[in-house]
Amino acid sequence: MGILSDYDDLKEATKNLSPPFMVVDLETFDANARELAGKARTHGKKLRLASKSIRVPALIKRLFDIDPETFQGIMCFSATEARFLSDEGLDDFLVAYPSIVEKETAEAIAVAKSGKTITLMVDSPYQVDAIDAQVRATSPELKLELCIDADMSLRRLGGLVHLGVQRSPIRSVQDFQALAEYIQARDNVKLAGVMGYESQVAGLPDKNPFAPMQNFVKARVRRLSVKNCRRIRGEIADYLKANAIQIRFFNGGGTGSMAWTPTEPWLTEVTAGSGFLQPHLFDYYSEGHAKPAYCFALPISRFSGPGYLTVKSGGFIASGESSQDKAPIVHLPKGLETISAEGFGEVQTPLKNKSNVSTGPLGPIFFRPSKAGEIAERF
Question: Which of 283, 314, 335 delimits the end of a domain?
Fold first, then answer.
C-alpha cells in the first residue's frame, strides 16, 4: 500500500524531520511511473515528462532510470528551465509555451550550441520571425528547432461555443499548413515537431465530488473532444505525409487523457507529469487513477477549543479557476476536515477534529495538494 497509507507509519518514517516538509513515497512513485510508461509503450509511444508537474531534478532523473526506453525528453515551461536542466545533465527539451523574450531565445541557442536538443513552441509568424532573426544575428550557423502548437479546443456553432483553453490560433489543417510553409521559408529555424494538447480531456475531471452536478456534462465534453482531437491531429498527419514533410516528433496528451491519446497511430509520443505523484485533483477521473505518491506535512500550532486544532500555514491553493477542488485536502490522520468559513489560510488553517483522533501536541498533519508541481516550490 505504501508508506502514505497509514498515519502511524508515516509519522514514524518522518519523525526526524521538522515540519513543514514534503515527503515522496518512492515505491509508489516508481509504480505510478511504470504504469504510465506501460500505457505509452503498449501503443508504441514514447513518454515525455512534463517538468512543471514534477519540478524536482532528482525525481525527473529517477524516471529516466526506471524506463530509459520509454521515457524520452522533457516538456519544459521555459528555455531558462531547459538550460538549468541541461546543466543537470538532462537532454531533449520541448519548451511548450511560446516566447519571443530575447533572453529566453538566447538560453535556447546556448542549449543547442552545447550539443543538446531543444525545440521552441510557436503558433504565429511573428514568433517565427523573432526567433529566426535572433538566431541569424547571434548564431547564423544554427537552425533552431520549432514545434507548431495546434489548438485542440472543441468549438461548435461557428466558434460561439468554445470548450477548452484559449491556446493557439492554429485551429485547422489550413492554419497549420500556412505556418509550416512560413517556417520552411526561413533560414535559421526548422520545423521539428507538432504538439496538440487536449486540455478539455486531460485536465477536466469528470468524477469531481466538489462539483457533482457538472460531471455528466464534463464526461460528455471529454468524449466529444477525444473524437475531435483525433480528427484534427489525423488531418495534420495526412498533410505532413502528403507533402513529404519529415518531423522528429508528434506530441499529444497528458495524464488525464492516457486512456485515449496513445491509441492515435500518427502520434510518436505522449506527455505525462501529474500522474507520477498523483495530486488529489487527478483522483477524479472516470478512467481510474494512480496512487498518491506524495504529501506535505504541517505542524499543529494550537488547539483553539474542544474538537478543534490549528496547523501553521496551509494556503497552498493551486492555479486555475478558483474553486474548492484547487485547495489541498487532509490526507492523514483521517477524521479531520477544514472549516468552510475559513478554508486553508495564509498563516494558519483550523481543522475540525470530528472523530477525536489522537495526533499528539505537534502532529504533524499530512495534506495532499490539488496539483503536482506547484507545491514543490514551497518546500
Answer: 283
Contact 367, 329 (CB under 8 A): yes
Strands (E), the chain: 21-24, 46-50, 71-76, 93-95, 118-122, 144-149, 154-156, 161-163, 189-196, 249-252, 269-272, 294-298, 300-305, 308-312, 329-332, 336-338, 348-353, 365-368
> Tell me, what's the pLDDT at 167?
81
Q: Residue 109's closest CA among 72, 148, 147, 79?
A: 79
**Residue 12, domain member (yes or no):** no
User: In percent, how much of the chain has pLDDT > 90?
Assistant: 75
Tell me phi and psi for residue 48, to 5 degrees.
Answer: -90, 140
User: Which residue has better confidence, 205 or 133?
Assistant: 133
Identify whether residues 51 and 101 lie together within a single domain.
Answer: yes
The CA distance from 285 to 90, in Å, is 32
143 with 60, same domain?
yes
270 and 302 in a single domain? The answer is no
206 lies in the same domain as 82: yes
Q: What whole-number distance in Å separates Cα of residue 6 and Cα of residue 334?
A: 9
Strands 154-156 and 144-149: unpaired
For residue 102, CA distances in Å to 106, 127, 197 come to 6, 11, 26
Asked if residue 97 is part of any domain, the answer here is: yes
Contact 194, 168 (CB under 8 A): no
In the listed set 221, 249, 283, which residue is the last one of a domain according to the structure?
A: 283
- Reported as a single tens digit per residue, the pLDDT across 35-84 is 999 999 999 999 999 999 999 999 999 999 999 999 999 999 999 999 99
For cell 486555475, the residue is: 320
Q: Is the pLDDT of residue 323 over 90?
A: no
> Is 8 within the bounds of a domain?
no
Q: Classify residue 37: in a domain, yes or no.
A: yes
Banded pLDDT at 21 (limits 50, 70, 90): very high
- Range of 186's domain? 26-283
When pLDDT is averaged across residues 119-144 and rounded to a whole number, the result is 98
Would you say 111 and 93 are in contact if contact means Cβ atoms under 8 Å apart? yes
